[in-house]
Specification:
Blueprint: H1 32-59
Protein name: DUF5320 domain-containing protein
Organism: candidate division WOR-3 bacterium
Length: 60
């Protein structure tokens, strides 16, 4: 399975930070600030997923 099939972490809107951390790009190392920004973005995405799952449960 292609680890980029989710299609969301490696878009230009996320700047130079990719959730894959070196799986395919030119850069292999990221600054602490870039890692922090990625993790903050990841937390926001997880919260959205949780909200969607809770919404689906309510509809069942």
């Amino acid at each position: 399975m292609n680890k980029h099939s989710h299609g969301s972490c490696c878009t230009p809107s996320h700047g130079s930070v990719c959730g894959c951390f070196g799986g395919h790009g030119v850069r292999r190392f990221f600054t602490p600030q870039e890692k922090k920004e990625y993790l903050e973005h990841y937390i926001r995405q997880l919260k959205k997923e949780l909200a969607a799952a809770e919404e689906h449960l309510k509809d069942m």
